[in-house]
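Appendix B, Record 12. Input sequence as logged:
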Amino acid sequence: MADESDTQQFWGGRMNEPPEMSNVAYCAGRDVTERPMADAVLAPCDLWQNRAHCAMLARCGIITRETLIRILRGLDEYERRLADGSITLDPRKEDIHTNIERFVASHSGAEHAGQMHTARSRNDQSATVMRLYVRDRVLSYGLALADLAETILRVAAKFRNTPIAGFTHYQPASITTVGHWFASYAQALLRDTGRFVSCFDRLNVCPLGAGAAFGTSWPIDRSMTAMLMGFRAPQINTLDCVTNRWEMEADAASQVSFAMTHLSIVSQDLILLSAPQLGIIEIADRYVTGSSIMPQKRNPDFAEVTRAKAAVIQNMTASLFAIARGLPSGYNRDTQWTKYLIMDVFDEAAAAPAIFSGVIATLRVNEARAERSAHENCVNAVDLADNLSRQSGLPFRAAYEIVSQAVKLSGGKSAVDMEIVRKLAADAGVPRVNAQIGEPLKIIAAKKSEGGPAPQRLARDLKYMSRSLKKLNKELSERRSLVDLSLEMLTRQIRELMAS
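Logged structural output:
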């Protein structure tokens, strides 16, 4: 037996493999971890927009080459010291923008740093920095969802021939396959991944240059700064640039909320199917937790945590809309809190796709139990009625009534008594009924309609989903490459300006 000091949890000894620590952290939430200052998270984005803005000012002849060089050296030194921990944000300086400008002033001279703020306001700075941050998180989350969808598609293909009872109202309903069930998750996540592509495209315009909200008389080149930060274009109308600061956060949060709500549905299914009373799936030891008092426990905490996270994210999304409701046009300090909300949304959701990829890739399906469920609780009743109607020519409702009576007269048996079906059908004028029309494998094979669980149909649908996923993955990766390319362009611009 392992010594208690050798394990990080009370319950580690019950499992056959060590816990996945990313899952432990996901479930622990903020209990034993702290979060950094909001503006410390935004520091790389703020440094990026400072460099782009000052490069543009130099290119337009608004600041001199010497001033640009001094400012850039100050920004480089600030970035270096922030990275090695020799400086941190000073609360007395209110925000990241002021911290950076004051540092550059002390390092490179106030006469140079004082020109950094030419033709901009903290209003358009903040909007730009948040747009850079949200854009990055949108890309990362969309790509993570695509990875999860790919994992699910593989599992769906593996079990496309495995019958299982589907549920409605938590009650056994009709026969499908494990593969068809998992394919439904993939289809939902494909929609979610597509939402992140469109969300990126909506927010990938640049508000920098809007000033306080009413433009500037300086001869700036907003297209240049947009290009140097990977935006497709400047955001038109400077008043809207500032007024709509909450909107991109609410947009992105809505997409996260969709995805997390879908994962909460997956969570509930996994909880249900892995319960010992059903035992159709088994979640790997590394993704379950135990109990401090009950040694036998294998708890799907990640699934329960996901349900909670989905609820919290839905409410934070609603708060983003609520903050904007009733605000007048222009900047209002209320929108500062949209920054905290969107950061919390992504922080709560960030690990979920990878956790679920791990869970689904390693779960075990008890195919015998899955198939047994397709033989129990008269779960073939609707398909039996369909087949009876098709074979006999009876109206569906008449066939339904025959099977309904047969279920009643079967006396609580796990399956509909086919002798009773034949007798009732004979009474209705149908002399012969095929005894095999209620068998699960035959039922599944017959469900060939588009989107149905027939293995051949599902195989085609999975190929279609895979093609759609590759397209979405390509679109997200291309957008990531364009953003990365803009950083290279900024570096080249700076080199040219410093050499001229």
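Residues 122-163+177-213+232-372+467-484 form a domain with the Fumarase C; Chain A, domain 2 fold (CATH 1.20.200.10).
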